[in-house]
Amino acid sequence: xTLFKRxxxxxxxxxxVGAGASTAxxxxxxxxxxxPGAGQAALCPCATLSKSAVSQLIHWQLIGTAxxxxxxxxxxxxxxxxxxxxxxPSTPAVPQA
Length: 97
What we know:
By secondary structure, the protein is mostly helical. Helices cover 68% and strands 0% of the residues.
C-alpha cells in the first residue's frame, strides 16, 4: 500500500473515530454545560435551548472529526514510514596485474 493510500485511510478512519467519540461524549458535555448552577431556577425558553444544544452538538462533532483525522494521520506518519531501499554493498575494485 502506498504512503498516500495509507495516509488517506488513516485520515478517513480518524475522522470516523473522532465523529463517533464526539457524538458519545458531547451529549453529556452539552447537558452539563446547559444546566443551571446550584440553587438557580430552570426557567428558560425550550425552543431556543434546543436549537442551541443541537448547534453545539454539530459544532463538537465537527471538532471531533477534525481532531480524529489529524491524530490518525500523525500516528500513521510516525508508525508507518516507508522503508528506504538499501543498496547492496559495493565490491572493491580488483587491481589489474
